[in-house]
Structure formats: structure tokens, C-alpha cells
Design goal:
Blueprint: H1 2-16, H2 22-32, H3 41-93, H4 100-162, E1 228-231, E2 234-235, E3 241-242, E4 245-248, E5 254-256, E6 261-267, E7 289-297, E8 300-313, E9 320-321, E10 326-330, E11 340-348, H5 352-359, E12 381-384
Antiparallel strand pairs: 1-4, 2-3, 4-11, 5-10, 6-7, 6-9, 7-8, 8-10, 8-11, 11-12
Helix pairs in contact: 2-4, 3-4
Length: about 400
Amino acid sequence: MLRKIFVCLFLIPFIIGATIDFESKIAHYEKAVRVVSKAQAPTVSKEMRDLYIQLQQKKSECKKLQKELILKNKRLEKEVLKIKLNISKKECQNTIAVIGIRTYLRHRKTQKDISMMKQKYHKMIKQRNKNTLRIRKIKKKIKKCDSWMQRLSKCQEQLGNRFQNEFQGIIDEGTPQWQKMIPGEKNLPVYGSVMTEKQTTNYACPLDNALRLDGYSTGWIPFIQNGTISAGTWSYPGGGLHLGLDVASPLYSPIQAGANGLVLYADAPVPTNCGYLGNYCGWPYGGGNTICMLMAVNEQLFAVSLNHLSNEIHVVAGQQIHQGDIIAKSGNSGNSTGPHTHIEVFRLRISVQAAVARFRQGADFAWGCGWNQPATCSDIACRIRPESVF
């Protein structure tokens, strides 16, 4: 009962639209994530996501203003130096002895010019110092925004750890976007991703009954350079089923093809940073923006899926990709509490043609292995740990 009363009191300020500063809001969330119920968790997670986006925007505005002020100060420095040199030059000319009325008048005019230049000089110095003070204050604001964002990320992590079993990353519901699936064996797009240069080798998309992959890769390369493993396969760090590998990286980190392959499904129906706990959008349900591919390594065929991507996807279904091509950028979409890419891998026991035909029956990212058990196998594939092959 006390827990319910606390949560209601916690949500009241947001319902009535009261103005609360960031510190107060985050302090409320830090308490709330420890006591909210399962039913309230998605709402709290979404609110924290929205607040995080506001802080990102605030930080971006501060950095833009900081950059403008730094540029203004650089221009002021040049002007100050120029005026200082002119003052020195005028003062040097004015040291000549005053002889005659005309010389005296010139002397008076020079003195007046020097006085005006000095006024301008001091005014610009004052403005420069004022800008410098503003830059320091902005730096503190940016640092504070970073601190708030880190605290919100920690809150999302705590909430995720509490409800990992209740809100699995992907569930067996929803409907695929059929127009985003490989169309078949005819009229497929040309080889290569949008971001890659034209290949000199003859990589052609398969046509009609000649469906194949033009060359196996001899090994894997990382899908995300300099990413950090935030959760391994089969279980989360705090417990709970986890069927793939989570690689954390900043939003819009480039994602490259880990091997030569063929895109079966590519769709970006939601915004890049729309993730929160229980946000079951996209296909598969909860995946947000996703890609599913066949990949060939050392004469073995694999299926690889990438989930929670940004809405910047550079490939289309039916397109062949070459190892190293930039195929997408990372995001925080779907059932996700922070920027990362969820990667799942299946070892296939069928040919490329059979795999495409099977996938076209229902766009099954699980390849018959389901979403409820680790290390499962179907008649065509086995779900394996990405860590075992990458």
C-alpha cells in the first residue's frame, strides 16, 4: 500500500504539469525506480527517456552558444590587438614637439583619436571578459547536463535490472512490414551498400534461380568499432534471459557488415532515440529499427539480426553487402533503456535459396528457435552465442 501511495505522489507533479527543475525530477526518479510496479515501469522509463532527450537538447544548445562565444572572443582578440597597435602608433607620433598652430591642432586631433580608440579598446576588453565568464558558466552547465544524463542512464539501468524477466527484449508478437522483406529471386537491387565505394570485383545480386552469395568471408570483423559489451548472451548481468549480445556505443555509431552477406529485412519505422522499457515497436516486436541478414563465413551460412538501431539504415532488403560496408548506425529504439545494438546469430543448416524461401514465409528472425529458451535449435538453424563466432 505504501509503495502505491509513494508512486501516486511521485506521478502527481507530472500529471498536473507543474514546473520542476532537472535536479528535482531526477531525484524523484532515483527514488521511483526502486519502488514502481511492473505496470508503472514503462511509463516511468518513457518519462526518463523524454527527460534525457530534453537534457541532450539543452546540452546541444549550450555547446552551440559556447562555440559562438569562443568565435566572438577570437574576433575580439584580433580587434583588440589591432587597436592596441594603432594606439601605440598614434602615441608615438604624438610625442613630437608641438610647433605652430597647425601642429598643435593635429596634436589635439590625435589625442582625441587616441582617447576614442582607448574607449573602444576598454569596451572590447570588457566584452571579451564578459564572454569568457559566460563560457565558463556554460561549461559548468554542460558538465551538469552530463552528470544528470549519467544519473538518468543509471536509473534506466536499475529499472531494467528490476524487470528484465518481465520485459524481455523481443517477444513473439506483432506483424512484419512485408514491403521491407526480400522480394524474392527476381529484380533484386545492385550489390553494395549506400555508404561504400563501388567494388572493383564482380559482386552481382542473384537473379531468378541462381540465388547465391558471391564469396565467403574468411573471418568476422566487429560490427561496431570501439563498442562495449553491456550484456552477454543467455543472461543479463543481473539475471534474466537474454538471447543475444548487447554492444553499447554512442547514438549514430557506424555499424559495418561483419561479413559478406545478403539483406533479408531492413526497416526503420520509429525514431532513433525512442527506446524505453516495454516499448514493443518494430519487427520483431520490441526490436525497434532492425536488420536481418544472411552471412557467409568460411563456407558456413549464418543468419544475423541487429536490433534497436537508429533510423539511419543504409541498406534495403535483397541487397548484397560486402564485409566492411557501413550498413546502419546505432540507436536506442524499441524495448531499450539506453543506446546499444542487440545482435543475435544463428548457424543455418540449409542453403541460401532455402533460407530465403523460409524467411519469406513469415520473416521469422528466430528461425524457428523461438524467443523463450537459450541455445535452442529448429529443423533449419541453431541459436548460438555471437561471442563464439565474432
